[in-house]
């Protein structure tokens, strides 16, 4: 297109367009390249850092030459995490350095930037950040997870160096409930990794500019883009852009919104114009339409880009790009979730926004976050719930591009907060919505991790209605069922391990299910132990299960809780990656509840979720095929086919057409033979998929495999390269039972970060590491110096292995780089619809387990709890034991009661059992006094002095009276370690 045509077309539109109106143009003759009107500098490289709190470190004259040189993302807790055993009882690793540190950045802007506006954006800092420019205090942010920014323009110098200083504090109170006001800054929720642990950018733009979506401090809104009236043939696209005129005079401004498709072709545009006075903010609003739009599906997440352009006298002066996904959706209380009219079951994970990585902590380059998303995508995920604070900007982008329906919170612990805590939370919720509201992957705003008061719910809805009035997203709070105040405010029930829906008129999505734990290194009970069953802390573990059992339970929990329920939207497996938060296993330095471990090596559970959830034919034989002669064991196969045939050395062992839990095929008492085991997945008598596993030979070598970002290993001071270390046989096959120490050396410009051993303390950041189940993974971090790095690995009895890596130079001038953090691009794929779904029982709306006493009952333990009526002798006491009540006191007869699972006698959760009293009622608790009485029982209930015998165990009877509408919350059976053999408590209710 010629400039003459462009000008004539522009003049034509000026003649037809009135102020505040917009007109549509077609794309055939319009330039299809983004305008380059503003600069986004990568501000991550080359900071000075001190793990101390000296006076006057904000001043330009302060001498920081002796400080360390680092690059962001950075944490000062990378070397003191994953190094201590979990404390158990849902307490994480707490021994991490906490205190105040300083960062200083020396930089100089080019003369060409003088006269322009300069803003700094921090994607977040943990936990409290005070920011200074050239000695001037700009402000403070203490959310820890929400982006924030400042206007640097008035304080910058162009004739000399500028110094940006950030004071960071990550301290916290000992107990999360008392950690006022920042209750979410505690390892109960996230490891307390302090630092500038996400990206930092400088935005340089014209004084007439589209504002940034940084509400904290700047109180600017950026753009707001959404689609409406969506069909296969058309979608209306609405573009709103807040514009600030910081010139000294009024400007006549032309605004143009251009819509580019995934391939980069311009498909629609709209224009309008306005006179904007000096110092004025004005929001442009336009509407256009996209013909025959490519819709955003979880299985085909097609993305558009909206470029908003400001022009003066026909010349572009500023532009800004906004993501756009065109999609419709519906959450139906009886039929589940629909994406563009297509029924889709949501399955995925909860994930901590710290995403802690052994050896690296929470400070990860964006491509490593992308790497984790690729694994979740490979395992069949299409849903993520960030818990309990917001994910990073890069990760929300990844939700868009990989097709993950996102449940997005602001910041929260697990409480109904008041005073300063609530003020910070609701402000952060507003900041979060302004920043993320354009992302199509976000379908639900999470108001909090606990129920709120009516006043707080109204504030949450006011924020949504003000800043996302056209998003049509739902809002819910996890554990909203603990308060009647929730009714009338939430629009979706966010459950937690719930077996019964608590809001019959709302759709239901699960936020945390399958919270059991198992380390990757323990195959099964027929394989050699690796410091697990033999661990001195094993009796303190809530969970004593193998990787095989953990993988099978993933199938059972999914199918029984969500998969088989036609009305259930789906939910989040808790969690995807092992981390140091809230572990219940004291044999581990991590909470081992992930499908991958803390360096993202997959467990068997990764492959079983993949076998259930991927739409293509899938099959997975759980475990390995290297046993001792004479071994006889059950072989578990998970497949999304109708049946499975199992072969050993090409001889058919058995055929199974009757899976349990929808996908789990069990072959009993299979005799091991060296060679090959093979499984075939069958649909309609046709083999759709095959997997084979072979017996590996003796270890003969170490194999080193590097993993780098899509643009290679960058010498920016914070990029990471991974190296997989495998023990292999003569044919190059991994030896699944191999273990033992490997020693490393490193030469060249890099920092060794190492890896970890999940069952050993102090295993991180060493130049040695144990192999686990045949493999482990280590990391090295780049410096600002590029060059060749050589890593060698040795294990006794094997040849030395060596790998060479090159870190590539990054152009950094005066503290600034234009190369932005790397991520994987061009990842769009279109997945088929599921090849086969097990039969789902018919759902009859309105049929629920009703109780007039135990209303909104929920249970978050590992086992299944049930409401039961008419307690008397002969009734079963537990859901998982054949123990009946025999002689019971007269006053308990005819009561309703909750049949709990005895297997949860050593499980602890703050909100393990909850209900709202439907009327004034007596509550009785039967408690095994060989177990230390939990706090809730001692503080809220009175020992009646009566006892009841359940089998051979004597239970004490406790009592209290509850008023109608009162919320009753009970924690675990004991706040501390419970005896090896003990009984779970039982709850009984009777009308007052």
The biggest beta sheet reads: 8 strands, parallel
User: Runs with pLDDT <50, length 5+?
Assistant: 1-31
How many individual β-strands?
A: 57
The dominant shape is globular
Strand order of the largest sheet: 29-28-27-26-25-32-31-30
CA radius of gyration: 30 Å
Name of the CATH class of the domain at 365-613: Alpha Beta
| Oligomer status | single chain
CATH architecture assignment of the domain at 365-613: Alpha-Beta Barrel
The average pLDDT is: 93
Q: What is the CA-CA span between the terminal residues?
A: 83 Å
- The CATH homologous superfamily of the domain at 365-613 corresponds to Glycosidases
| CATH topology type of the domain at 365-613 | TIM Barrel
- The helix tally amounts to 8
> What structural category do the secondary elements indicate?
mainly beta
Strand content: 35-45%
Q: Please, could you describe this protein's structure?
A:
There is one protein chain. With 992 residues, this protein is mainly beta. Among the domains are: 365-613, TIM Barrel (Alpha-Beta Barrel), CATH 3.20.20; 701-814, Immunoglobulin-like; 854-991, no CATH class. The strands form 13 sheets. The chain has an 8-stranded parallel β-sheet. Strand 28 (442-448), helix 5 (454-467) and strand 29 (474-477) form a beta-alpha-beta unit. Helix 2 runs parallel beside helix 3 (393-402). The radius of gyration is 30 Å and the shape is globular. The model is unreliable at 1-31 (pLDDT under 50). Residues 44-203 form the Glycosyl hydrolases family 2 sugar binding domain. Residues 231-327 form the Glycoside hydrolase family 2 immunoglobulin-like beta-sandwich domain. This is Glycoside hydrolase family 2 protein. Belongs to the glycosyl hydrolase 2 family. Residues 333-470 form the Glycoside hydrolase family 2 catalytic domain.
